[in-house]
């Protein structure tokens, strides 16, 4: 049986994700489950006043593809029941895995995890924000630096049963000003691996070819130039950056 045409086949809504800040629906295209975010349901933010959140989500997917790390599930623009919007293949994550977590501050594992920050919960107990120390999350952290992700919350990291990690919710990306807000700060100052450097090079080179042409349909010239500059800075530094600027370094809420 041939695969359905995910761009033109009918998109049927099956539910709504009510916890999302913008209109977000579950849907189906010929029995293929998807997430659908109509442009008409976007709420402009003070630091992203021009909207285009759906376009940024697609741009993030294109960068992910050029990196070659399969971070962002397949994402595209198409018409739907509520007009044009972003559509993304639904990912069934493993609820038993928690790549990013809040734990008691005195219960930090000896190995396999990175400590990000500490604070107090609603009961006044000291807790720590931690994330796993894995190649998959390292690659996601590199990706977030490149796309200038302003909203990498813990629940935006999807744990796949096979150990792969997907990143979702990339509407707040590609701002021309520094906006990096993420829970993945555990490798601050660590040297980039050869694989990570090669991925950055693929994006830099792609901006002079097909990637650049595709992004020109989704982002402004200034945003694309800023992406190129971030690639150059990260490649030159050769290590994970530290937080900078006056903005908070982590999103709120964290999850």
Task: Summarize the structure in words.
The mean pLDDT is 94. The protein is globular, with a radius of gyration of 18 Å. The longest helix is centred in the last third of the chain and has 17 residues, at 221-237. It is built from five helices and ten strands, in the order βββαβββββαββααα. The chain starts with 10 loop residues before the first strand and ends in an 18-residue tail after the last helix. Strands 1-2-3-5-4 form a five-stranded antiparallel beta sheet, covered by helices on one side. A three-stranded antiparallel beta sheet has the order 6-8-7, with no helix packed on it. The protein has 255 residues and is an alpha+beta fold. α3 runs antiparallel to α5 (221-237). Helix content is 25%, strand content 22%. It has two domains: 11-94 and 134-237, no CATH class; 100-131, no CATH class.
The separation of the N and C termini measures 40 Å
Poorly predicted regions are: none
Number of separate domains: 2
Supply the number of helical segments: 5
Number of strands: 10
pLDDT average, as an integer?
A: 94
Q: Could you give the order of the helices and strands?
A: EEEHEEEEEHEEHHH
The coarse silhouette is: globular
β-strand percent reads 15-25%
Radius of gyration: 18 Å
Q: Portion of residues in helices?
A: 25-40%
Regarding quaternary structure, what we see is: single chain
**What class do helices, strands and sheet pairing give?**
alpha+beta
Trace the largest sheet across and list its strands: 1-2-3-5-4
